[in-house]
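Figure S4 source data
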Amino acid sequence: MTSMPHQSRQLVARAVRHLRGTRWLVGVVTMFAMVAMVVMTMPGCGGTSEPDETTAPAEPAAPDWEPIDIGSTVGMRGLSTVGPAVVWISGQEGRFFHTGNAGDTWGSGQVPGMGAVDFRDVEAIDAKTAYLLSAGATARIYKTADGGHSWLKQYASDAPGVFFDGMAFWDPTHAIAFSDPVTGTFLVIGTDDGATWSPVPNRRLPMPVEAEAGFAGSGTNVAVRGEAAWIGTGGGAARVLHSADRGRTWTAQTTPIAAGEGAGIFSLAFWSDEHGVAVGGNFQQPDVTDGTAAWTSDGGSTWTTSATPPRGYRSCVAVVPGTPGPTLVAVGPTGSDISIDGGRTWAALSDTGFHAVAFPTSELGWAVGADGRVGRFRGTPAPGT
């Protein structure tokens, strides 16, 4: 039994003296009150007891996409980052958004006269300089060099069949953009000065198979690295068009990505000259997992189906820089998935749906989607978060 502290013994003695007085009843009440105080002060009782060591502390919440309000409800599919601070976003109604401080504040605007245009791709050079590419019958490329205060139209075509799906830059002055076939041949245009765009001669491009085209799901079915370029197709065939000389000549390789109406390759990402991944599926059946991801280890000459695929159609994939594997994140309308082995297997990351994703650093990611949805991911993503 735990011994009674000296101060507690004094309280009991005082209670006994009260009992010897004339106010006997009051003394009894006082005694019981003082005894109760003694009990409360004893170790292991009442308010002075130690915390219950069997109660486990609450686990901190796992990292997830943090909603960011940029003051718009338009659908957004264009996303480009430069380092940890600069983010450019593009979308419907000719809208664009940008930040130079990792999302603390945003600038926004609308390209004059382009209120009916959907800018499906944006390619950022720096905080002031960016290119916009529109999808649909009104094919346009615009450039700003002053943070969106003014825009210069660099390319325009209203020819039947022109429908640009994406573009990619090797550096600030060299880039290519890809359109669905026009009059039976693919349309690939390029720039060598960041100002003027010219088509690649048809004779240098593979012929499309019947109903083969591209998808402007995120502007990322075009990827470049080193001297190489890759373009993903869909519809009649899910192929990868490859150039080893910055778009001058091209070949085509088949992939196991799902093909058909609404299906194909929607996004490509390469982290070395040899290693890359393709994601896609059928946007009309977003929960179907078959044929949604494949990987290559020979520069795109051959492709292997991911052993464990993403959880459905995915419109964009991004490499998380500085991670082993490497780590990849793919997004679509039904959620985002993660691979830590270069696309061979995938696991759930989040149930929040997006159209495009980018990770400028290993611990900072951005994603955009429908109805003005913007997400920021802080911390290195991991399966099950």
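Figure S5 source data
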Amino acid sequence: MSKRASSLTMAIALSLALASPTLAQAEITPVVEGGLDSPRGVAIGLDGTIYVAESGAGGEEVCLLHPELANEEPGICYGASGGISSIVDGTPTRVIDGLVSGITPTGEVLGASDVAVDEMGGLWFTVGLGAPDPVAFRESVGDLGSDMGFLFKADGEGGYAAVADFATFEAEDNPDAEQPGNEEPDSNPNGIALTADGAVVADAGGNTLVLADADGALSVVAVFPSGMAEAQLEPDTDPVPIPVDPVPTAVVVGPDGAYYAGMLTGFPFAPGTATVQRVVPGEAPTEYAAGFTNVIDIGFAPDDSLYVLEISHDGLLNADPEAGPPRGGLWKVPAGGGDAELITNELVMPGGLAVADDGTVYISTCAVCPGGGGIVSVAP
């Protein structure tokens, strides 16, 4: 399995996996009930406003065949339906509109991935890509695709400016090229952590954390190593060992000043194998917490405990086509590490979380549902 395939799993594998719902262990309160276009990352503003990155609903302006879809017609179809929304009193309002959004034949969406708020109230956001030879693929989408693979900062008036180009950085440097299956570059920028040194971004395609400094210059903070797993690659054949990409989806700054990154963990998406890694610049990543499945986001609470969000609690390939949308889990790791507690496993295909100052966790749901996404809250 190449890193090209694993980097796109956040979009493609979602529709391949439909897990049976289970009983919730915590009270889940709707904040926005539907209407969001494939909501992903969530952030809390200085005044308590909720912000959410909407990957969009795709479009019909440009359709391209894609090797990770086995050239299935019509490939990925792009439009300008993505954006960033603010939510006040349960009402979403687009504050950034017209971002590129790509949708596959089975309804998975790629577009805006995460949003963050800086200490001055400024909005930052990433737009994903997820393709081999990322610069060439972006160019093939034309003017519509010019946002793909970038970190942006909003200007407060509905506009935005590019801060850093992760697709070009990956194409030129490919930091994990020596790992099995990762010889070709792939970039899919996702989670954002804002720091005094700049913005650190989790590149799910590149399997890296990359720092964008104040001038937009990029440098590698960490490269996450591949693992191994048994997978049946063809029907009626025996499982064989294959490299498994870590696929970092999220990054936050911990109470100790280190970076913490959540791993989706690529194909075959084995349940219980996803981790949270602790990263000190200049040192190899170390495991902070384990036992999760398909981690899509993480966030520290005011008491220094860590919330870990799974997009699929049972694993993206444990499919039951008749069961309905997959359910994700929310876990809580005690301050300083230790055994995680499952808070709920009744979140409908969640895409991101943010923890408020009072400890309330806000979570986007139905992350690949054009028009059907929402926001829920879970009390501490």
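The domain at 3-378 is CATH 2.120.10.30 (Neuraminidase). Residues 333 and 339 are 6 Å apart (CA to CA).
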